[in-house]
């Protein structure tokens, strides 16, 4: 493994002495030891550390000030109980968390996830990733993430409302427009943000930009809903352009069928690509004819209004097929956008994609490719954009929502569309700056990790030991 062959000096594991550097393996072992039972967090830190070790090899200040060690330790993890009453009158108890990872370059910022799989470790990995992602946007936002093991599936609107209100009853004391600004993520969309914002306002008697992804009637920004999927597609296009290509006629395989997946599908289609798959946690649909805007609108309606399953697609659109308990990575394609969840694309899937001729992968989800898969893509030298760069369009427009709320104005759609493209172009350029490997190959993972790290690290150096 690459990690084992490294012998770079690195920051000490204990506070014994400044010169007590360890190598990459020692560092990762330390992270594992300090974070038992949190493999996703260890994975996220390891992926970043693999690149940062090389970068800081000859940069003594980053060692002396233990910068990566400090970024990989959240500023704080808030854990709380969330009680709510279901429609049958039963009292239910859930866990809630907010992980405030790092606020060196701006208020903590990052989504809230409601999913039964959520643990403290999941949110720590997401808050860690968010810190780098937010730095890459160029906007002043630190990294945070929150959520609960609450499962919104199959719950009535009233149950979701009661849960959201109870969740905010504790969360409100830890957040604020200049402190920590949550938004949506898996299981948290416009409905949940509305309920949480309403409860925050009621508790504090304040109307501030404390959450983003709000409805347009109460401080939301145009294009925030579309921004993540559109941004991931713009990043994909930027990568293709470096090879003199575009999306015209390209076959795209997309996973997920939520906010990110449907908007990625929409933008790929608008740019001339042919989207042939979408999925959910039960399986995927394959539509060889390609998805039209009408079909994508149908999926949005299915997920957001009827709250149904992607398997229903085949009844509505003959010629398509449903594949239960399968992921879409075996469908031959030119480009792939994993837009569902972490570790949904494994080493074997990556090998299959490469063998089938896939040229480019843009991660709409956070850490959808496991470490082995990342190494497969890097070794094959295909165009591969990590989530922290490719899906940053969502949080970027959240940042623009914060600016609009502070100034008490609303920008026009054309202006926001232009800003989103500008921001994604900027992220692409920052990745290229640190990721160029020669021979026309850009390691976007390395570029994103270093560019994101450098901004946060330099701010931390300026503050001293705090
Ligand atoms: P949604 O809740 O809108 O959709 C999630 C989709 O992923 C659903 O189709 C869901 O299927 C599927 N999914 C969830 N968990 C699993 C799982 N364990 N296995 C397989 N499929 C699963 O969420 P988003 O679209 O907002 O988020 C998708 C990804 O994008 C996440 O990784 C999120 O962190 C990331 N992201 C989101 C941003 C945003 O602005 N919303 C911004 C940046 C990144 P099912 O219905 O079966 O659960
Ligand atoms: O992972 C992410 O970037 C998000 N879920 C969006 C965060 C945000 O604050 O808009």
Tags for this model:
five-stranded mixed β-sheet; binds NADPH dihydro-nicotinamide-adenine-dinucleotide phosphate; alpha/beta; 466 residues
List the helices and strands and how they pair.
Layout: H1 2-5, H2 24-34, H3 39-56, H4 60-64, H5 67-71, E1 76-85, E2 91-102, E3 108-114, H6 120-137, E4 143-148, H7 157-171, E5 180-183, H8 190-204, H9 224-241, E6 251-255, H10 259-270, E7 274-280, E8 283-286, H11 293-304, H12 313-316, E9 321-324, E10 335-338, H13 347-355, E11 360-362, H14 371-380, E12 383-385, H15 387-390, H16 392-407, H17 413-435, H18 444-463
Parallel strand pairs: 3-4, 3-5, 6-7, 6-10, 10-11, 11-12
Antiparallel strand pairs: 1-2, 2-4, 7-8, 8-9
Helix pairs in contact: 2-3, 3-6, 3-18, 6-16, 6-18, 7-8, 9-10, 9-16, 9-17, 10-11, 13-14, 16-17, 17-18
The protein binds NADPH dihydro-nicotinamide-adenine-dinucleotide phosphate (NDP) and (2Z)-2-iminopentanedioic acid.
The site of NADPH dihydro-nicotinamide-adenine-dinucleotide phosphate (NDP) has 24 residues, from helix 10.
């Amino acid at each position: 493994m690459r990690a084992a062959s490294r012998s770079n000096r690195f920051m000490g594991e204990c506070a014994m002495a400044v010169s007590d550097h360890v190598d990459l393996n020692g560092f990762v072992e330390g992270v594992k030891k300090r974070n038992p039972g949190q493999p996703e967090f260890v994975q996220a830190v390891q992926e970043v550390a693999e690149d940062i070790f090389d970068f800081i090899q000859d940069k003594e200040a980053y060692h002396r000030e233990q910068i990566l060690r400090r970024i990989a330790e959240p500023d704080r993890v808030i854990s709380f109980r969330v009680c709510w009453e279901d429609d049958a009158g039963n009292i239910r108890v859930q866990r809630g968390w907010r992980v405030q990872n790092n606020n060196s370059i701006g208020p903590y910022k990052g989504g809230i996830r409601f999913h039964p799989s959520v643990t403290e470790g999941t949110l720590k990995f997401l808050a860690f990733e968010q810190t780098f992602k937010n730095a890459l946007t160029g906007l002043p936002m630190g990294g945070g993430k929150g959520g609960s093991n609450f499962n919104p599936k199959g719950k009535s609107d009233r149950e979701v409302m009661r849960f959201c209100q109870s969740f905010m009853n504790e969360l409100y004391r830890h957040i604020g427009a200049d402190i920590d600004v949550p938004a949506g993520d898996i299981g948290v969309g416009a409905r949940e943000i509305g309920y949480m914002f309403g409860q925050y306002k009621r508790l504090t008697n304040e109307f501030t930009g404390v959450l983003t992804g709000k409805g347009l009637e109460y401080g939301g920004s145009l294009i925030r809903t579309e921004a993540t999927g559109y941004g991931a597609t713009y990043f994909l296009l930027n990568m293709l352009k470096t090879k003199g290509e575009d999306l015209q006629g390209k076959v795209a395989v997309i996973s997920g069928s939520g906010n990110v997946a449907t908007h990625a599908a929409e933008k790929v289609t608008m740019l001339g690509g042919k989207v042939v798959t979408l999925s959910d946690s039960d399986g995927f649909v394959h539509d060889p004819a390609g998805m039209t805007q009408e079909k994508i609108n149908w999926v949005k309606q299915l997920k957001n209004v009827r709250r149904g399953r992607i398997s229903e697609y085949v009844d509505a659109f003959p010629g398509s097929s449903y594949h239960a308990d399968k992921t879409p990575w075996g469908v031959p394609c030119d480009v792939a956008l994993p837009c569902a969840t972490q570790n949904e694309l494994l080493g074997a899937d990556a090998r299959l994609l490469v063998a089938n001729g896939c040229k480019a992968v843009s991660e709409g989800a956070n850490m959808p490719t496991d470490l082995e898969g990342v190494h497969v893509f890097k070794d094959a030298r295909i165009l591969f954009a990590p989530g922290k760069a490719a899906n940053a369009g969502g949080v970027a427009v959240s940042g623009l929502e914060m600016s609009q709320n502070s100034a008490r104005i609303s920008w026009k759609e054309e202006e926001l569309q232009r800003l989103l493209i500008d921001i994604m172009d900027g992220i692409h350029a920052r990745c290229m700056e640190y990721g160029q490997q020669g021979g026309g190959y850009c390691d976007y993972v390395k570029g994103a990790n270093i560019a994101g790290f450098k901004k946060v690290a330099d701010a931390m150096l300026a503050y001293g030991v705090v």
